[in-house]
Design brief:
2 copies of one chain form a homodimer. Chain A is of the alpha+beta class. The first copy, chain A, contains 5 helices and 3 strands; from the N terminus they run ααβααββα. The first copy, chain A, is about 65% helix and about 15% strand. The first copy, chain A, has a 3-stranded antiparallel beta sheet with strand order 1-3-2. The interface between A and B is medium-sized, with 26 and 26 residues. The structure holds a DNA duplex (30 and 30 nucleotides).
Chain lengths: ~110, ~110
DNA sequence: TTAATTCATAGCCAAAGAGTTATAAATGAT
DNA sequence: ATCATTTATAACTCTTTGGCTATGAATTAA
């Protein structure tokens, strides 16, 4: 239920998968057929990619008749945003230290 | 020189590699030997991972005598932060539309 | 000079991954 | 009831990847 960063990174590492997710983010809901039209791969390939994205918590599928409408899952990127933020923050912390050092040296 | 998101995602998709990068972010510079001690894999494996991280622009190596000091590259995560931000923003846009719709329905 | 240390590269292997075609399962249309 | 459509799964192939050992290249120590 709670998607760890590992699944997210792995899921988004593949360009085809990332393109699918981007499309769902930008254009909203879409059926497998519509997604297959845009992607450069076969329908089974798209279905497999969607399954992986779903497993990672990035998308959800809503069955309606014989077709499945997929959409991006809100908040799914939060762990990624957290992680990148943390890494950046620590770098800035060291940068602040350097600034402090330079300031002290300046006096 | 400008690291595209694909290289970044691919580089950070591997847990060992992500752990190396995290360590460099949190603890600053470290030699290959020191990094190998922490990682659960052989020294050649660490070297290969570092090469990939370097290729992605995530780290840099400073040769000093027979050892190489690696450190996290500042700003390297910017494309990732951009991308996640964009994806999130579009979702929020749709959310705002929904709010507008609900507000209009309310009247 | 010789020996030891540190890192990178080469070469190999097993596992994972992304793609395909074929087909099953479910639904909708005739 | 039959046929068509839509999606998911199965079975397979091929490539990529992450790991290892062995070794080379460069530097430092004895």
């Amino acid at each position: 239920m709670k998607p760890n960063p590992d699944l997210l990174f792995k899921a988004l590492a593949d360009p085809t998968r990332r393109a699918l997710f981007e499309r769902l983010c930008l254009d909203g809901e879409a059926t497998v057929g519509a997604l297959t039209a845009g992607a450069g791969v076969s329908q089974p390939a798209v279905s497999k990619h969607l399954a992986i994205l779903k497993q990672a918590g990035l998308v959800q599928g809503r069955g309606e008749g014989r077709q499945t409408h997929y959409s991006a899952q809100q908040g799914a990127l939060a762990p990624l945003i957290d992680w990148t933020g943390r890494m950046n923050r620590f770098w800035e912390a060291r940068f602040d230290d350097l600034e402090d050092l330079l300031k002290r040296m300046d006096q």
